[in-house]
Design goal:
heterodimer, A: 502 residues, alpha/beta, 6-stranded mixed sheet, 34% helix, elongated, B: 353 residues, mainly alpha, two-stranded antiparallel ribbon, 16 helices
Chain lengths: 502, 353
């Protein structure tokens, strides 16, 4: 280990039942360095961090720390004692205590607290780190950014050598992010090694010195920031080489009706309270388009706004050229819009209810409170779609929660197809399901489109989107930054648009 | 699935088993427990009497409350602990209308139906108050309903200036007693009407489906176009209506009211009925008939305890034992353990194979 190295992880392995989350991963952190840890979801970033902070125990590998040599970290307390501190995305402090209490809680020197001294110490530290808060202020009165900073100050005061910032900026606005970066630079000057996990590319290039990229639990490489242009970073994260130009044109015949040019849905400057910039969007009859961008770029938030799932703050929406109000999901459903949500467990399935009830749910709500389907009719609907989508279930009475992920997803898909929507939004319909079902769903999308249904398809896998979509809206940092269609629909073009910048 | 498993996994299994167990205990103790006799009451009309009739009669309020409590539990994942106090309020309002503010009127001052409708409105308003706190302001049901639980009986006393009016019309006492010439307690008919109404509502509306969906996954329900806030609110209003019907029976039994004692602790029995019916107290799927059966099981238990000469003050302690058994046996860890245990028994294994 080098003089200036503060942390060295070598050959880290970690498996969970059925998954090899980390395979032989190395990671090195220098003194006074801000080091970005990048990778798509499931790449192993959080597992690596959890191994480092003692939440998980590693299966193999070594961790060396400057001054301590090789260490075994079995618990978060161990990590803290060794000078490894973590600040998470969600604030883990106590909002009902004061700033100073939060900074010193759990590590008082004696049973009795000298409040005056504690507050003075806190104020000194806050001043040194230039954090705009007072020691005696209640934490909940501070902005989220300041709360983050207090969490950092607490970590710093515990003599931390390694500071891990796990997506600290996702709930901050631009100015707050700037303040946080200021603090990070100060700490860097003090010699603290910082590991910065984020999904925002711009932020990486603003503050970081080095980047380590993980993919599928394996180390892709460690790079100096100046040696790795954005496009290449995205390529490394996605695992696609720049000139990987395999032919991936659509397979479906497309829709050729007389009204093929009609715009089914149109949004102007639509904005919701989920933190996306106002955006324009439209889709034609029989068209398949998609939102693409890295995770957290606002893809889902856009389609949620279209469906009225989040609170709508402004903008105009037209269906078939007629202006309509869509403020809640039912409004969207009445206008022929269906939405398969991203998080199947939280927003999709109604776990304890039967497959049948889950299938008829949306159409039943549309039909009305006072017009329940007869059992025979509901059963007929359910049986029809269980056959059509080849849903593997013991019976239509089986609770949906006992089905496999792929079959659950098919049930939710059946729910929306039963509604016979004009415009179907699929948000990550293929996430976490087996390959066979993935292909089924993609084929189904193209088939539906050829019958005249408009479909918006979102997927983290660019291949899938290229295979199904004829037009892609590209997003970065919660903003629509481009639109690609025709010849431009290639991996390279998508990646360079996602990366932006130079 | 084997037949045995089919039977044991049915929700009605738990309350039915409890009922059978209680029946057997009584049969062993004194077979006379089940005797029903046709006699005459003070007024000379024929009436049925016996322990079973007592159970059917006095379990009525609980059975009616179980309907509303089941819906509230399913939709909100919490319980309304103010029903006893709101029975006092609705009952007091009813008396106020019947007696017109005069504590010893010569005749009733308004038709009984008007008084009952006023009580319904008052009960539903109380429900709406609880419902608004829970659905709109997202306060935990038990905390939200603690307000009326605490204040309810005072409000009830205040409605009648702390007087205890007595209803002079003997017709009013029919609701909690007997209609001349009919030997079956009137309450049995009232419960039957309530059950028919809720059965029709569950059959001809989507109340059941929506309530369960909201209770299981609120976020998903919303994305399916359901308004979870409204559904939760409605469940409390329906419970308010049940409270008004229960108040009618309670007040009618005495033709007057005792603010601090009327329907005391009934909220706990109503919640227990829902739990005994095998419904999860954290909301979601429910079985209405199982809850109602649960209510009568509780009354059966109470009556049995009286038969064994348990003092009314000590009742609660005995009921607590039942609650403990119930909670422990429905806990997932115990169920898993039981399942393991059953697997080891050879003849059960054959059955499963």
């Amino acid at each position: 280990m080098n003089e200036t190295t503060v942390l060295q992880m070598r050959g880290i392995n970690k498996s969970f039942p059925g998954v090899r989350a980390l395979q032989n991963v190395d990671f090195k952190l220098e003194k006074g360095e801000i080091h970005a840890l990048m990778g798509e979801n499931g790449a192993g970033k959080s597992t690596l961090i959890k191994v480092l902070t003692g939440v998980y125990t590693k299966d193999a590998g070594t961790i060396e720390l400057a001054g301590s040599g090789e260490v075994q970290i079995h618990s978060p307390q161990d990590a803290q004692k060794l000078g490894i501190s973590t600040v998470y995305q969600e604030i883990t402090l106590c909002p009902n205590l004061t700033v100073a209490e939060n900074m010193f809680i759990g590590r008082e020197k004696s049973a009795l607290t000298n409040w005056k001294e504690m507050n003075a110490d806190a104020d000194k530290l806050l001043k040194m780190l230039d954090i705009p808060a007072m020691a005696t202020q209640q934490l909940s009165n501070c902005s989220i950014a300041v709360q983050q900073m207090v969490a950092i100050a607490r970590a710093v005061d515990m003599d931390c050598k390694v500071l891990i910032l796990d997506e600290p900026t996702s709930s901050l606005d631009e100015q707050e992010v700037e303040k946080l970066f200021g603090l990070m630079r100060d700490l860097k000057a003090m010699g603290v090694g910082i590991i910065f996990v984020t999904h925002f590319l711009d932020q990486v290039y603003e503050v970081c010195d080095k980047i380590t990229v993980l993919r599928d639990g394996q180390l892709v490489g460690e790079y100096e920031i100046k040696d790795l242009p954005r496009v290449q970073l995205v390529a490394k994260m996605l695992g696609k080489e720049m000139d990987d130009l395999s032919d991936i044109k659509g397979e479906g015949g497309g829709y050729h009706g007389a009204d093929a040019d009609e715009t089914v849905f149109e949004a102007e400057q639509l904005q919701s309270d989920a933190g996306i910039k106002p955006f324009d969007f439209h889709i034609k009859k029989g068209e398949v388009n998609g939102f693409t961008g890295l995770l957290g770029s606002g893809r889902s938030e856009c389609v949620r706004a279209i469906f009225g799932a989040d609170r709508i703050l402004g903008g105009k929406v037209k269906v078939h050229g007629k202006e309509v109000k869509i403020n809640k999901p039912l409004d969207a459903m009445k206008n022929g819009i269906a939405y398969l949500p991203e998080d199947r467990k939280v927003d999709g399935i109604i776990g304890d209810l039967s497959v049948r009830d889950n299938i008829i749910m949306a159409l039943q709500v549309m039909t009305g409170f006072f017009k329940p389907f007869s059992k025979a009719k509901a059963e007929a609907f359910a049986e029809e779609y269980i056959k059509k989508l080849n849903i593997k279930t013991a019976s239509s009475e089986t609770p949906i929660k006992s089905l496999s992920g792929g079959n659950q997803q098919k049930v939710i898909l059946a729910r929306w197809l039963l509604m016979h929507p004009e415009y179907l939004i699929l948000d990550e319909p293929t996430r976490g399901i087996d390959v066979g079902t993935k292909v089924d769903i993609q084929k189904l999308v193209l088939e539906l489109a050829s019958e005249g249904m408009s479909v918006t398809f979102i997927s983290s896998e660019t291949d899938e989107m290229l295979r199904t979509c004829s037009r892609l809206v590209v997003m970065r940092d919660r903003k629509v930054v481009g639109e690609l269609s025709g010849e431009d629909l290639t991996q390279n073009k998508i990646m360079s648009t996602i990366a932006g910048g130079e | 699935m084997s037949n045995l498993k089919k039977i044991t996994s049915n929700q009605l299994f738990i309350p039915l088993m409890a009922l059978i167990l209680l029946a057997v205990i009584n049969l062993i103790n004194d077979p006379g427990f089940f005797k029903v006799t046709l006699g005459t009451n003070n007024a000379g009309y024929p009436v049925l009497s016996g322990y079973l009739i007592t159970i059917l009669d006095y379990g009525s309020e609980l059975g009616i409350l179980a309907i509303g409590m089941t819906l509230v539990t399913a939709a909100s994942g919490g319980q309304d602990i103010s029903v006893g106090a709101t029975i006092a309020i609705a009952g007091s309002a009813m008396l106020r209308v019947l007696c017109g503010g005069n504590s010893r009127p010569e005749t009733i001052q308004a038709p009984i139906i008007v008084a009952f409708l006023v009580a319904c409105v008052v009960g539903m308003l109380c429900g709406a108050f609880n419902g608004a706190l829970v659905a709109l302001f997202k306060i935990q049901p038990m905390i939200a309903t603690l307000i009326l639980f605490t204040a309810g009986r005072s409000i009830a006393a205040w409605i009648n200036n702390n007087e205890l009016p007595i209803v002079p019309d003997p017709k009013f006492s029919y609701f909690g007693g007997f209609i001349p010439g009919i030997p079956i307690p009137t309450t049995v008919f009232i419960v039957a009407i309530c059950i028919v109404i809720i059965a029709l509502v569950l059959k001809f509306t989507n109340l059941g489906l929506y309530t369960q969906a909201v209770g299981i996954n609120e976020s998903s329900s919303r994305l399916n176009g359901i308004n979870p806030t409204l559904i939760k609110f409605i469940s409390f209003v329906i419970l308010g209506l049940c409270v008004a019907v229960a108040a009618l029976i309670k007040v009618s039994r005495l033709s007057t009211i005792n603010y601090s004692v009327i329907a005391k602790d009934i909220e706990m029995d109503a919640i227990l009925a829902v739990a005994l019916g095998g419904n999860s107290l954290s909301g979601g799927k429910f079985n209405m008939w199982s809850s109602i059966l649960g209510a009568y099981v509780i009354q059966f238990l109470t009556t049995t305890l009286y038969k064994f000469n348990v003092q009314s003050d000590a009742l609660a302690a005995y009921k607590a034992v039942v609650v403990i058994l119930l909670v422990v046996f429905s806990a997932p860890t115990v169920r898993d353990y039981m399942a393991q245990l059953f697997k080891k028994v050879p003849f059960m294994r054959k059955e499963a194979a």
